[in-house]
Write a structure and sequence with these properties.
Keywords: ATP-binding, Cell membrane, Membrane, Nucleotide-binding, Repeat, Translocase, Transport. Pfam families: ABC_tran. The protein has 17 helices and 22 strands. It is α/β, with parallel strands linked by helices and 504 residues long. The protein has two domains: 233 residues, Rossmann fold; 175 residues, Rossmann fold (3-Layer(aba) Sandwich). The chain has a six-stranded mixed beta sheet, sandwiched between helices. A six-stranded mixed beta sheet has the order 16-19-20-13-21-22, with helices on both faces. Strands 2-1-4-5 form a four-stranded antiparallel beta sheet, covered by helices on one side.
């Protein structure tokens, strides 16, 4: 099925999110839509999927103009969408999820679950997905859950498939598997729209590339274009894609973690007797497949886990047993992995979010009174210094693009007097321009003598920032290795294999 978008314009009040965007996707083609966060990519796809109605322009399928009033119309016309955040019911089986919204009925109107099971098996065997229709979704790895989303779309005979930032929650191995699936779908004649800001993925699978910036198409490129060329088109300026950092100027051991163990309320062990140190002026980067104890480790360092044993010493002071407030006041900065849930208060202004960690002390509060002039000067300075693109400091943080939300969190944490920085997935869901900026700030923090713990599922990021790499698997340290360790070796370590020479 051939897809054409002709002059699509979508406005939200005075903001023009899509400005006369046109593109064509042929059957058997992977067309990549590349752009920064907030460029208008997802808005355009939501128009295509019937979630928004365009103010101007046309959606054309096989030379017929479409008039969608909702996602049901889009699905009926042969459009399927694989969302960045999965639209699955965790406690349902695969077959039950695939049936949702498209329920087949049998005798006396009863649900025909067997038909859904057979459809899952048929699609899974055709594309080599290896998905059990009777598996409960919440028990499946993230990569398999994404396959369930694809099966849902294919079960409704989708001929146009939209992948919206599909690798945001995948490991490197799962990402490689998804690229293979996309090639299979292409060979089967599907028209694929691939939304991303990751240049490696674009060049690996795209047949055509359309670049969007600030709601407009700014150009088209071939997959042979260099990363620098694509990045410059995305952000409108040359972008430094490599992290520039000199050799570390190491000081004493500042953070000493000994026999750390984290157990949840059900008795499951998430961090199992691990020990490591970080020196002043050093970045220790933690690599591993998501769900192997990284989240629990960072939360234990911040006092966010209830059942923690062992020792966490920062500059000779014990952190285990202290409150979150006491740990923050001890100089620990925290960039959480989920900025919207743990990093920001969306309805509060940018200025209010900037002072969240210290709203109880001077200079922002004196004798119980908020010092508005002080806050305004401080927030205006950070807005400019950290290049947060917003109308002003009174803008609610929840209205910012993902990259600018992350900059607010980074600005707040790095503007404090830090003794340790814990950065969990610091560039997750962030565009290439913001990644460059955030990496620069982390390196500057390291160069100022602060010990830094970075947790990331992006191997490129781990290797770029690390002075040493610690690999976690099922709550254990597989090894601590130098950043020039081959990518293949790191990948094996992430599956639990320990190479010779790895310190643990």
């Amino acid at each position: 099925m051939k897809l054409e978008l002709r002059g699509i314009t979508k406005r939200f009040g005075t903001l023009t999110a899509n400005d006369r965007i046109s593109l064509t996707v042929e059957p058997g083609e992977i067309h990549c839509l590349l752009g920064e966060n907030g460029a208008g990519k997802s808005t355009l796809m939501n128009v295509l999927y019937g979630l928004y109605r365009a103010d101007e322009g046309e959606i054309v399928l096989n030379d017929e103009v479409q008039h969608f009033t909702g996602p049901g119309d889009a699905m009926a016309a042969g459009i399927g969408m694989v969302h960045q955040h999965f639209m699955l019911i965790p406690v349902f089986t695969v077959a039950e999820n695939v049936m949702l919204g498209n329920e087949a009925t049998g005798f006396a109107g009863s649900l025909d679950l067997e038909a859904s099971r057979q459809r899952v098996v048929e699609i899974s065997e055709r594309f080599g997905f290896h998905v059990n229709p009777d598996s409960v979704v919440e028990e499946l790895p993230v990569g398999v859950q994404q396959r369930v989303e694809i099966i849902k779309a294919l079960s409704r005979d989708a001929e146009v498939l939209v992948f919206d930032e599909p690798t945001a929650v995948l490991t490197p191995q799962e990402t490689d598997e998804l690229m293979g699936i996309m090639r299979q779908l292409k060979e089967a004649g599907k028209a694929i729209v691939f939304i991303t800001h990751k240049l490696r993925e674009v060049r690996e699978v795209a047949d055509k590339i359309t670049v969007i910036r600030l709601g407009k198409v700014v150009g088209e490129a071939e997959p042979t274009a260099s990363n620098k060329e694509l990045a410059a088109m995305m952000v409108g300026r040359p972008v430094e894609l490599t992290v520039r950092k000199g050799p570390p100027k190491l000081g004493d051991e500042a953070l000493i973690v000994t026999d750390l163990r984290v157990i949840d309320h059900l008795g499951h062990v998430h961090v199992d007797d691990i020990s490591f140190t970080i020196k002043r002026g050093e970045v220790l980067a933690v690599a591993g497949v998501q769900g192997n104890g990284q989240t629990e480790l960072t939360e234990a360092l911040l006092g966010l886990q209830d059942h923690v044993t062992g020792s966490i010493e920062l500059d000779g002071h014990q952190l285990v047993g202290r409150s979150v407030r006491q740990i923050l006041d001890a100089g620990v900065g925290f960039i959480p992995e989920d900025r919207q849930t743990d990093g920001l208060v969306g309805p509060m202004t940018i200025a209010e979010n900037f002072m969240l960690d210290r709203s109880h002390t001077e200079p922002f509060v004196r004798r119980g009174t908020l010092q508005l002039d002080t806050l305004e000067k401080f927030a205006t300075k950070l807005l400019k210094q950290y290049d947060v693109r917003a109308p002003g400091i009174t803008t609610p943080a929840g209205q910012l693009s993902g990259g600018n939300q992350q900059k607010v969190v980074v600005a707040r944490e790095l503007s404090r007097d830090l003794r340790l920085l814990v950065a969990a997935q610091p560039t997750r869901g962030v565009d290439v321009g913001s990644i460059e900026f955030i990496h620069t700030q982390i390196v500057a923090t390291r160069d100022s003598g602060v010990p830094v713990l970075v947790v990331s599922t992006e191997l490129d990021e781990v290797v770029a920032l690390a002075d040493r790499i610690m690999v976690l698997y099922r709550g254990h340290i597989v090894g601590i290795v130098p950043p020039d360790t081959p990518r293949e070796v790191l990948g094996l370590m992430m599956t639990g294999e320990r190479p010779e020479g790895a310190v643990a």
